[in-house]
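Project channel, design review

CF: Before we commit to the Spirosoma linguale constructs, I'd like one complete example in the thread so the newer folks can see what an input/output pair looks like. Taking TPR repeat-containing protein.
RD: sounds good, go ahead.
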Amino acid sequence: MTVTAQQTAVEFFESGVNRSKSSDFTGALQAFSMAITMNPENAPSYYNRGLAKATLKDHRGAILDYDKAIELNSKDALAYLSRGVSKSRQEDHRGAILDFGRSIELNPDAPQAYYNRGISRSRLDQYQGALTDFSKAIELEPVNAYAYYARAVTKQKLNDFAGSILDFTKVIEISPKRAQAYAGRGTSKVELNDFTGAITDLNKAIELSPQDSESYFHRGYAKGKLDDYKGALPDYERALALKPDHYRAYYGRGFCRSKLGDQKGAVQDFNQAIEVNNVYVETKVVYNGRISHAILDNLRNVVQERDKINELGSERAEAYFSRGVSKHRQGDSKAAIIDLTKAIELNPAYAEAYFTLGLIKSAQGDQKGALTDCNSAIKLKPGYAEVFYVRGLIKHSLGDENGGCLDLSKAGELGYTPAYKVISEYCN
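CF: and here is what came back for TPR repeat-containing protein:
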């Protein structure tokens, strides 16, 4: 019997791998979940399910799977590397750095771990450590354009503009169509007062990426430094058209207007340069997650309560439940709540009644009450995917982004795949 179960687990695992290869990540996830159910001690099943979740941008859920994979096999460098990547996607750069360090200890010749650790160090303003990591990644993989680019940006942060130009040039050699490399080299040339050389690079950056406001801004600045105020003006205009809150571009345009004799326009621009970023923000927020009241309503209303006919018990809880649902559909939510509450009173284990009650309360704006009902439904039916989904939405809307996203992850894991679209938009 055990041998058959093991074979079946292997088959599900292989199915998960094949589905991942064909980019069916939700299918892969379900297959790995089945493999885990049949053999809960197999680290690769957790690791691969983690990868599937990460690809679906469910990094919180992925981290839980990597935790389990590492618990079962603490020597897996890839599991630490992948967990580090997911932690960095969640802005936990300190945690990510520890994982990348452990991955490097286990496999010191993997350039990706050094590169990723360098990125996380940069995010924490640890530029000297980042520089060392990017240099090591380049030593191990001399044609890694990403590592050269990251090292170039780090050198800029450390005011080594001449060194950054060498690295940006290397990126351009490896990848001649990379607009950011021309833009980066151009801004370093500005810092070194090579304004003509900067304009040449920024022209190329704009040709390759015409929607980059920063390239227009820096080209305008370089033209201004060469006293070409007429030429600089359209660059500042374009920077502002692409990014209307670019206060440095207002300042640059104001300076050009002043030099060209338009003092009234100059004063308006200087006012904007001062005012932008000083906008009054309303502090009283009820829905303080990125899921607002309106978004919550849209996402929640897609979910239908599981309104299947049940055998009518002697206490008639099912009749109250169904009457409540009908009253809600007729728009009488108050009467619906009374009926659903009665159904629960008669049958305290009625998970569907709690869930439906939660949906109605949420629609009425009583998110705390809805949360309590969803908790009860999950306690009674721990595999109720839709409830995890709705509870996740509500938690997120109340500002508990981590708790909300973990619930959405659980909903997806349990087979409610619309959760991954929400995770992709609101959990990263």
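RD: helpful, thanks. The two ends are 43 Å apart (CA to CA).
CF: Confidence is low (pLDDT under 50) at residues 279-285.
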